[in-house]
Fold:
Amino acid sequence: MSKINKLKDIISNSNNIVFFGGAGVSTASNIPDFRSQDGLYSEQYDYPPERIISNSFFMVNPEEFYRFYKNKMVYRDAKPNYAHIALAKLEEQGKVKSIITQNIDNLHQMAGSKNVIELHGSVHRNYCMKCDKFYDLNYILDYEGVPICNCGGTIKPDVVLYEEPLNNEAMTKAIQIINQAEVFIVAGTSLTVYPAANMVRYFPGEHFVLINKEKTSYDRFADLVINDYIEKVFEEIVK
Ligand code: CNA
Structure:
């Protein structure tokens, strides 16, 4: 049996599938990932990207942070691709219980998925650091330079930066869901960003499926590894 047919089989026999994804899920929507050969980390900047998108950098140099963030991390016109659409369809059919994502692009929700846990926040939510007032993405992108609140405070994206902890509630819920899943599909992630990557270890079940175009250090733990493009795999699955 081909690997795709094996995956089809696993999916058709379960109503308790949990999906865990990363930046690779959205590259077909023209949002670059970090660690692919043509990802953001392969480009040259004044500072390494890990440094720019860290909390301490944001606090000291918000101008440079926002210059990078607006140019390289926010894609206002991005649309869901086949992977997002197929996952929303599988949720509607009662097969996928939950999506846990490291992405900040909102594309799963845009495709129609309802149960989405955002481990690293979302570019669509932004808050004043002084008065907590909410601002949407358009406000941030249309503001020239560092976006400032009416009260004079600096606005910060609700995105988990390097050096910042994950939201405790999101993390606890994700671990619980992974722990109760029957099928666990991990896709489009290098599994190198912690503590998110560690969550994969909480799956106790039988069907751990890993879909990624490159190998990852977790391949040896998976029952089925498909080294291919996720949008292509999902197009075949729901065909
Ligand atoms: P990463 O470290 O950049 O890894 C991405 C992985 O996906 C790599 O192993 C690639 O080989 C693989 N990949 C790329 N395209 C495809 C594809 N079409 N099909 C299958 N595999 C593919 O990204 P991670 O998500 O592992 O790292 C976590 C970071 C990246 C999180 O903090 C995210 O917030 C952050 N990020 C998010 C976005 C987004 O929201 N779309 C974009 C870029 C980075």
User: Anything to note?
Assistant: The longest strand covers residues 121-128. The chain has a mean pLDDT of 94.
